[in-house]
Amino acid sequence: MRILEITNLKKTFHSNFLIKKYRILKGIDISVEAGEIYGFLGPNGAGKTTTIKCIMGLLFPDEGEILINGRPADTIDARRPIGFLPENPYFYDYLNANELLNFSASLYSIPAAAARERIDRLIQQVGLAGFERLKLRKFSKGMTQRLGMAQALIQDPDFLILDEPFSGLDPIGRKEFRDLILNLKEQGKTIFFSSHILQDMEMMVDRVGIIINGKISRQGKLSELIAGSTRCHEIVCSQISEKQLALIHPNFVRRDNQYIITLDNEAEINLVVESIIHNNGLVIAVNPVKKTLEDIFLNEIGEVQ
Amino acid sequence: MKINIKGLILNTFKESARNKMFYLLIFFGILFALSSKLISFLTLGDAMKVLKDTGLAAINFFCVLIAIFTGINLVYKEVEKKTIFNILSKPVTRGHFIIGKFFGLALTMLLALAAMAVIFFLLVFLVGGGFDLKILLYFFMLYLELLIIVAISLLFSSFSTPILSFIFTVSLYLIGHIMWTFNEFKMLLQSKLWIKFAQFLYYIMPNLDKFNIKNDVVLDLPLQATTILFSVLYALVYILALLTVTVMIFRRREFI
Amino acid sequence: MKGKLPAVAFMCLLLLAAFFQNRYDATIDYFGDRSVFVSLPSGQSLRILSFGFQNFAADMLFIWSIQFYSTYNLVNRFDYLERVYDTITDITPLYKEPYIIGALIMVFEAQDIPMALRLLEKGSRQIKDEWFFDHEAGYYCYKYLKNYEKAKEYYTRAAAKPNAPSFVKRMKAHMVYLHDDPRVAYRMWLDIYRQAANRVEKDAAFNHLYQIKAELDLPVIRQAIDSFRTRFRRFPVNLAELVSRSTVREIPLDFSGKDYIYDPNLGTVKAQRLFKWKQR
Question: Which end of chain C is more exposed for a tag (fewer CB within 10 A), N or C?
């Protein structure tokens, strides 16, 4: 079942007095299946946040259709099961964490007793225990991010839309967030998140969509995208002079006392290893190098440009 | 479709009630109301009248200031600091948002006015005056006027910056208070077209002087029930109209 | 929800607001019967510019004027006196104090009584039911201008106001006495005497009646004595002789019902009591 379906989404911004047009989204198609983690990947200014704002009804698309659970996204009932964490969230600095979550709960008409219980659990979950009564103006960026996550989860949503959830977090925070998201997935929730941090993506997502310059250039299962193929091989060797090595193979780099030779062609491995041994060099390792998301990403960007 | 606007109202109320500006203005309002005692020393004859005049003028002035300053900031701040993302992504329509803001502000104004009114009545009582029900009626009419001002500032704040909203709202407030002179000047207009145009303006601009019964109340002049009734009806309908247009504008807004 | 509905609702609400405005206007008399200003004199323009704070503006101007006019070392401080009070009373025409205090300043400080009378007359025009302005004006006319005719006019107007206290009627009667026919005044006093509510009023009316009656009677008696003397070349023995010798038809009694006092040796007649302060 498709929980989110975007077809041909277009959005143009105008500068003042309609002189200049900025075409931000040029026909986006995205579909998110129920129960998966969908990574929305793209460089800065590609249109990630714009797409998310269109989904949340903060921007009005020029063209295209956005369906949530098969219903148009611009009704409040469609938004009810969505938990949303905006990019760099900001909250009322005159409230404390508890008050803010209570306010969020009130917008979903959650009864007071249930809300209290849920808020206590969420504060534990996002690691804000002990800071419930602190005014939000004293919150650090990471704490605000955690609070943003808590308010997105207030109504126990089925579908989470997270815009750059890992920004502002330290490594421990990232780990915690990752665990939290994986935990939510285990509970059967669908998660759609944008990021430009590939490492986080690669560790979690089921599927990715890569957006570049307002267009989805690639979409699919992560395992399929980086399937099987070894990109290249590395040979690590030492006790050989650069001069000799340059004759054997020109594509190498030096790291401390060792040299790393990158081979694109599998057939060359034997030949190169033999040559090194022949020159009294020491072969330390031969490693296959797997394709990563980064490769795909950089490749896509290269292609577009 | 079950929506809790109460949360929005209370949050708006909290926002303005936790603003230092709000207390500063209330403080000054009360200070000036109290200083009316000093001013009344300077007059000859009916000191109580001067005391009431000055006190009510101070309350009126500072309440209007509070209404304008809180009204022009609230929506703008939400949009500027992007806190509105967290609200509109919840099951809350733009209309709910505006209505929540309006009633939150109404609650704030009620608190401010009540605080000042209590001090005023206390002062009158201490100086030896009695409780005058008509002055309570004046406070009610002032409250209606404040609600209109709040709705006006909310309208402007839904699409422009605080500075512009301030200028617009203050202009409309001043225009609203001299609108009644139209009845006097219309005969000066020569062409029929101008008269029609002036009449059109007269009827669509806020007509605020009708809520200003403080002068009648202090001098204990007779007030007609129908006059009051039409003032109240006017206020309610005008506020509704303002809120409708605010929601209309706000619905078209995009939050980049 | 979207579409034309809000726009239509907005138009309807605006129309309704205009309707209520119209109805409201029908219940209000914006300018009363005060002269309609077309060229915006200063008081009225100030009233408009006070944006609803006209009472406050008037108070401030009033307080300022009181302080200003009681600063005795200022030269020419009365140059704009009338203008100042005109402005104050234009802004809040129904505020009583400025008329009275203004008139006091005009009379006692500036010593310009006609100016004070103009201000008080304005007050009387604006606050129709107030007797005090006409009383003040009448008193200034009587006391300082000695213009009893004008004083009579003011008191006549003051006495006609609904809440005028009884002494205003007595003042009116006295002004009538001072200005024109004592007989008219006598009838007025008689009314007051009959309707008197208390001892003090009754005594006052009695004194006046006694005085006027004596003033009217004594010349008649004196003339009768004179004509008696020309006819009989002597004074009558007593006043009764005037009747028996048919010089007059009857001898009037004073207001308390007693005879006037007659001195047969000098031929003079006088009332039992006469008050210096009543004499013209």
Answer: C
Tally of structural domains, chain B: 1
Length of chain B in terms of residues written: 256
B14–A95 CB contact, under 8 Å? yes
pLDDT at C42: 65
The yes/no answer to whether this complex scores an ipTM above 0.85 is no
Q: What is the pTM of this model?
A: 0.76
Report yes or no: B177 and B208 within 8 Å, Cβ to Cβ: yes
CA dihedral A94, A96, A98, A102 (to 10 degrees): 10
Q: How many domains does chain C have?
A: 1
Judge whether C71 lies within some domain.
no
In a domain, C266, yes or no: yes
* pLDDT score at C199: 83
**Residues shown for chain C:** 280
Domain membership of residue B79 (yes or no) is yes
Residue C3 is predicted with a pLDDT of 67
pLDDT on residue C160:
84
Return the pLDDT at C2: 52
In a domain, B256, yes or no: no
Asked if residue C259 is part of any domain, the answer here is yes
Instruction: Please report, for residues A17, A260, C188, C214, C279, the alpha-carbon distance to residue C256 in angstroms, rounded to integers and kept in the order given.
Output: 102, 147, 18, 11, 19
Enumerate long-range contacts of C105-111, CB under 8 Å, 24 or more apart. Answer: C105/C65, C105/C69, C105/C81, C106/C81, C106/C82, C107/C140, C107/C144, C109/C69, C109/C78, C110/C78, C110/C81
CATH superfamily, domain A2-225, is: P-loop containing nucleotide triphosphate hydrolases (3.40.50.300)
In a domain, B199, yes or no: yes
CA-to-CA separations, B5 to B1, B104, B119, in angstroms, rounded: 12, 10, 32
pLDDT digits (tens, 9 = 90+) for C27-55: 877 654 333 333 334 677 777 777 778 88
More confident residue, A202 or C34: A202
Domain ranges of chain A: 2-225, 230-290
**Are B215 and C55 a contacting pair at CB < 8 A?**
yes
**Helices marked H in A156-254 — which ranges?**
171-186, 198-204, 222-225, 242-248
Phi and psi dihedrals of A41, rounded to 5? -115, 140
Pairwise CA distance, residues A159 & A170, whole Å: 25
Task: With beta carbons less than 8 A apart as the criterion, state whether A66 and A3 touch.
Answer: no
Domain A230-290 in CATH 1.20.1070? The answer is: no
- Give me the total of CB pairs closer than 8 Å, taking one residue from chain B and one from chain C: 121
Q: What is the mean pLDDT of residues B135-148?
A: 95
| pLDDT single digits (tens) C118-173 | 999 898 888 888 888 988 888 898 888 888 888 888 888 888 888 888 888 888 87
Decide if pLDDT at A152 tops 70: yes
Q: What is the pLDDT of residue A55?
A: 92
Residues spanned by the domain of C270: 211-278
N- to C-terminal Cα distance for chain A? 35
On whether the CB atoms of residues A159 and A3 are closer than 8 A, the answer is yes
Dist. CA A62–CA A75, nearest whole Å: 17
Q: Is residue B213 part of a domain?
A: yes
Range of the domain at B246: 5-251
User: Do the chains contact at A58 and B85, CB–CB below 8 Å?
Assistant: yes
Q: How far is B4 from chain A (nearest CA, A)?
A: 5
List the helix and strand counts (H, then E) for chain B.
Answer: 11, 0
Residues of chain B contacting C92 with CB distance shorter than 8 Å: 215, 219
* Test the B interface: residue of A92, A99, A104, A145 with most B CBs within 10 Å: A92
